[in-house]
Amino acid sequence: MNELLLLTPGPVQVPREVLEAGAAPMSHHNAPEFQAVFKPMLQGLRPIFGNDGPILVQNSSGRGAMEASLTNLFSPGDAVAMLVNGRFGLRFAGIARDLGLVVHPVGPEWGYAVSEAAIAETLTQHPEIKGLIGSMCETGTGVMNDLDVIGRMGERFGVITVVDAVSAAAGMPIEMTKRKLDVCFSGIQKCFMCPPGLALIATSDRVWDAIRASKHYRHYFNWVKMREWLELPKARMMGTPPESLVRSLAQAVTMMHAEGLPNVYARHVLLAEAFHAFVHAAGCELVAKEPQYRSHTVSAMLLPPGIKAGDVVQRALKNDNVRLSAGQDTLKESAIRIGHMGPVRPDMLQRGVKALARALAELGMDAKQAQAGVDACARVLARSEQKTAAA
Questions:
Q1: Neighbours of 243 (CB within 10 A)
Q2: Element (H, E) at 227
Q3: Sign of the CA dihedral running 69, 71, 77, 78
Q4: 20 to 30 A from 208, CA-CA: which of 13, 74, 111, 252?
Q5: How many domains does the chain have?
Q6: Do 173 and 35 share a structural domain?
Q7: Which of 229, 257, 285 is the last residue of a domain?
Q8: In a 3-state reduction of DSSP, which class is residue 115?
Q9: Are 298 and 9 in contact (CB under 8 A)?
Q10: Which of the listed residues 257, 289, 315 is the one where a domain comes to its end?
Q11: Which residues contact 87 (CB under 8 A, 6 or more apart)?
Q12: Residues whose CB falls within 8 Å of the CB of residue 131, separated by 6 or more in sequence, listed in order
């Protein structure tokens, strides 16, 4: 049987070179060998986020970065506007409430991006709001919120902007400075092609007065201390750094720059277009209704009536050793999610859609319809190969 192919919305399949980098012998976080890896990695991250302030590396998953962004940017009792057009926006809102913030939710029904008008209405009605917070890519629906809108609204109303880009950074351009975003964070287990365990927090220079002024309790996730440690002659993390993960991330960042960031982003666009072609040719629909707001990194596909997501996931794994993901919350049994991000290449996506089509056909979809989806995906990928060859 083929090696397991992981096409979930994260974690992703880690490239062998990244695994091998993480398996290198330990040195020490003060040793020259570690500094020679750590400092260039920090510089390599900057073009991915496009920020002008420090980039912090935190021992946590993306959820830890959610909490840290709230405790470092705001004080108990502060009001924030939260984009809640998916599960991760709702989770972020829940964390904010747990930390004593006043949350004003903004969001349409799932499947749609949050509109500029809705954000403006909330910020106008509640002038006490100090932050505008949301996910760039809602992993449960494949909806992409508009970073230009978030930055524009932040500047217009004078509020701090915070973007959860866990399933987007390194797969789609962020351009924080250009878009006037204050804080953007990600995990390393998705587009960054690494095992989970680190959060990356990119900041703007202008937001540091607010960070220093926060009255929230913070120790291990204290960004002021993190910055101080990172700017020492021997750059440090809070506590003992996970050297293996740092080495893996350094290798992944090197690989992305070797491919070229414009090429990385173009590959994600191609993979998304090819999978969306599969969905439409198979007679199905995407959860993300607006084409301009569909993520390039993860997609959610609505299943035909009578076919359950859990059964599709099991069949694809049993038949072809391809692991997909079911939907989330109200979409748990009615949608399939596929991650086409990070290390995924056209041949991997093609294998994935073949496994998906086979599972759907076995569970009741017309076999010719399922095959039409596979063929449509292949045509999109072939056109790209022809353009590359011609160039």
A1: 20
A2: helix 223-230
A3: negative
A4: 252
A5: 2
A6: yes
A7: 257
A8: coil
A9: yes
A10: 257
A11: 138, 139, 140, 328, 329
A12: 73, 74, 78, 80, 81, 159, 160, 161, 162
CB within 8 A of 295, min separation 6: which ones? 137, 138, 142, 143, 144, 167, 168, 172, 272, 288
Tokens of 336: 């399939």
Using CB atoms within 10 Å of the CB of residue 77, give its burial: 0 to 12 exposed, 13 to 18 middle, 19+ buried: exposed
Bond from prior residue into 242 cis (ω within 30 degrees of 0): no
Is residue 18 within 8 Å of residue 193, measured between CB atoms? yes
247 and 108 together in one domain: yes
Residue type for position 241: P
319 exposure class (CB count in 10 Å sphere: 0-12, 13-18, 19+)? middle
Domain that holds residue 200: 17-257
Tens of pLDDT along 183-220?
A: 999 999 999 999 999 999 999 999 999 999 999 999 99
Cβ–Cβ < 8 Å for 10, 339:
yes
Helices 243-259 and 32-49: angle between axes, nearest 10 degrees: 50
Q: How far apart are CA 324 and CA 12, in angstroms?
A: 11
Give me 75's structure tokens. Answer: 């004080």
Rounded to an integer, what distance in angstroms lies between the CA atom of residue 187 and that of residue 170? Answer: 10
pLDDT of residue 238: 86
- Residue whose entry in the numeric block shows the structure tokens 């829940």: 94
Residues lower than pLDDT 70 in the chain: 1, 385-391
Q: Do residues 88 and 135 touch, judged by C-beta distance below 8 A?
A: yes
Q: Of all helices (H) and strands (E), which one includes residue 319?
A: helix 309-320
229: helix, strand or coil? helix
Owner of token pair 């502060």: 78
Claim to verify: residue 101 and residue 237 sit in the same structural domain: yes
DSSP letter at 329 equals G
Q: Is the dihedral of CA 203, 195, 318, 314 positive or negative?
A: negative
Q: Are residues 167 and 213 in the same domain?
A: yes
SS3 label, residue 81? strand
For residue 203, CA distances in Å to 186, 237, 329 come to 12, 16, 32
Query: DSSP character for 26?
Result: P
Residue 186 tokens, joined: 């990600």
Per-residue pLDDT reduced to its tens digit, 295-333: 999 999 999 999 999 999 999 999 999 999 999 999 999
Q: Measured between alpha carbons, how far is 218 from 220 in angstroms, rounded to an integer?
A: 6
Q: Are residues 28 and 119 in the same domain?
A: yes
